[in-house]
Predict the 3D structure of the following.
Amino acid sequence: MSTTEIFNALPAGYTLQEYRIEEMLGAGGFGLTYLAHDANLNTKVAIKEYLPADFATRSEDQSVQPKTASVRDSFDWGLKRFLEESRTLASFRHPSIVRVMRFFEANRTAYMVMEFIAGKPLNEWVRTCSLLDEAALARIVAPLLDGLEVIHQAGYLHRDIKPPNIFMREDNSPILIDFGSARMKITPDQNLTAIISPGFSPLEQYHVKGKQGAWTDLYSLAGVLYWLSTGKKPYEAAAREREDTMPPAVAIGRPGCYSEKFLAAIDWALKPREEDRPQSVAEFRAALFAGAPAARDAAAATLQVPEPIVSPASVAIQATFEPSTLKRVEAELAAYVGPIAGVIVKNAAKKVANVPALAYLLAPEISDLKARAAFIRKFSSDNSMPPSHPGQGARPSSVSGLASGKSSAIAQRFDAETLRRAETSLAQHIGAVARVIVKQAAQKARDENELYLLLGDEIADKAERKNFVRSGISIPGKS
């Protein structure tokens, strides 16, 4: 019997809207994940299908339905949650969180379309590595902590952090994947399906009334660090409840590779009782890097959101905006992206010199093109400046300037005429903000084809997006 038959998966070649299924990538309790081809953008994507194995099955026409009438309510409730969570996850914008591109309903179920990540899961990637010291682990965990903080501040928990769900890209940067178990932060009267990954799941996930919170995900992430730093998989949480015989990382961490404070922080987050662990990402981060904050900063710098497009004169500025100013910007952005706005604004404000530049940097977070333009206009004449820099002009002389290092890297891949042509073409769809978007995309794209694929994501209309991408890829002289 084939894998497709065992898991009731969609067959290779099956078409879902503009996506053609190529193969099944994996299966979990809540559904299946496929590799698919996007016919519009001519690129690969990953698609997750809601198909809970416990109470759903597939019919001959490929539709999904409850196994029995008695589980109909559970199926419908799960489907509703899948769509709600897809909508929320699609609002996340962080390089360490897998990007959800869209979601839709078909076959009486729902689908979530995500970027396809080239690389390997952590448990496979680590086999190809030499010994990982503290600096190497910092380069993995610091970006993941930043991404996890975004998830928690939006009111969600991942609930299934383990080595296979941390993917290592080809440039060795980490990304958190598989949000099939993600849930809103838990209320006291809420029952949850038990999610168990032995060694990486804390005790509160073993029963439906467990008190889950940020400390739950931190336990799992600490379990990954314990495994990496000691070479030993953590004991199952259920086996540690009455008597904890698991050797602490401080005692068995590889000698000379890690500071005592680093290992002690791992042990802290792995405490069996949830109240004994760090209660937030900030607490865990502070403890983890207390012995070597420079390693943390260096690690975090390896995986940043692309540099903001600001005036060269403002590159060196570490702005300190009035809290009321940031609150105004946050309130406006929240209307489009939800509660995550606070985190996005806070991070962006560290990188620009004034409010107009901040608005340009935040604008791509707004999917509706008219709303995006209105957002920029609203703040384009704002003269608010960081109080510590009163001598700076109110508005950057050129919002298209780049730090010299990034400029030279871009210039090696794209000449000025290529970027101008892309900007002119994109501006027909999204207006003047195209200049900002093109230069941001140019920092990530490896060639002109990939540049146009990235830019196409900014165009809402499906037909216009398809024509834009095709026009860019078919330019004469392109290799």
In short: The radius of gyration is 24 Å.
